[in-house]
# Entry
Amino acid sequence: MHPFEQHLTQPRGRGPVPDGAFVGSAGGSACGDVVRIAVSVDDAALITVTFDAEGCGATLAAASACAELTEGKNVLEAARVSSAAIAAELGGLSPGKLHAADLAADALHRALAHAAASGTHLALPNRDRILVGLSGGVDSAVAAYLCAQDGHDVVAVTLKLWADQEGDGERSCCSPQAVLTARGVAHSLGLPHLTLDLEDSFRTAVVDDYLSEHAAGRTPNPCVRCNGFVRFDAMLALADRLGASALATGHYARIADDGDGPLLTRAADPRKDQTYMLAGLRPEALRRIRFPLGDLTKPQVREIARGARLAVADKRESQDLCFLAGTSRERFLARHAQIGDAPGDVVDTAGRVLGTHAGHHRYTVGQRKGLGVAAGEPLYVVSKDAGTNQVVVGPRTQLATHAVPLTGTVLHRADTRVNRVKLRYRSEPVPCRVVGAEILLEEPTTGVAPGQTACLMDGDRVVGHAVIAA
# Structure
């Protein structure tokens, strides 16, 4: 009997959800097919796999094949099962029926995602195992490839942080669409793939802070908060449950030990350096983190991806915050925090009214364009006052400052070690010294915005971080 007919007429594992099982469902395709996969995990193995399916015969057969492929296998073996493997188990599927294998695979991986987030022990310890954060872009794909080439037992994980019907999931690094792309990359490399759904913690720790900071007239750094409080902690905890010794990501950064422990260090390619966005990482976490791209340039990474025939080798980079992909900051604030257009005055530093604005949240310190004020010289946003809803503007000279007040300072070394500070992601570090609760700059700097991160450095090493105060 042909494998397809066998699974269709004698399905494996069709039945109810076992007690305590992890369940994943997928469906909603044009023909209305739905698949449910339930897995019971014990001692890092799928001891029971059951399914139910509604729709065409191919859907039922694919779900049965998925159960056949995974029951009794360990979690990492199951995490390697792709839609192509399910189709092959059925002896092949016509193009019109491949969606059935896609649904079965998606249901399986959603069930495994619940297991990954549950705190359940997922694999025996392996010193060579390394967990790699896979976003669906070229950088993380090359990081995973390089780790595998180095002989590591690589497991890939993708974080689902945000889903928004008004957004563009194809341009986001952590959307449901990104999960599917990353899973495809992992399976093309023969790697097991897991998903962690962190949307609730991401909303609480990152998005809610972003909304409240804008309402208060400040300009926050959500990526710094995400890396420091959500993303890396969750992946390191998963690495523990997988018995992995380390975590790797595709960030452009390096780690160096100064004799007192590891410190984040600028990447070899200054144009791609991401240490600013990683400044919130704790030194104890750095002991287990690896950055395979730290000594590479972006063109070199692209070339490695092409040589490895990775499908994402030429994928365009997203320049948006993950939750703003496909929408605007103003639209996002209006929808999620009811921060809408509230007209107010545009004033100079002497308090003279020069015009009106449509909402202080539309502006940031240092901004020049879009002020809607005519003057004999270029004007910039010097400050904002959320209480009075005023935007204060002035010439560029009024932006310059030698002193930057700080709040929430975290130092990993003595403050006397701080000799440079990076005040914006795209800016170069400025020579400085720390005096009390502020930084004194050796040269005047413009566009210092309250709410932004101050990355405190000793040469090229990150020795602390803080938030710029008003």
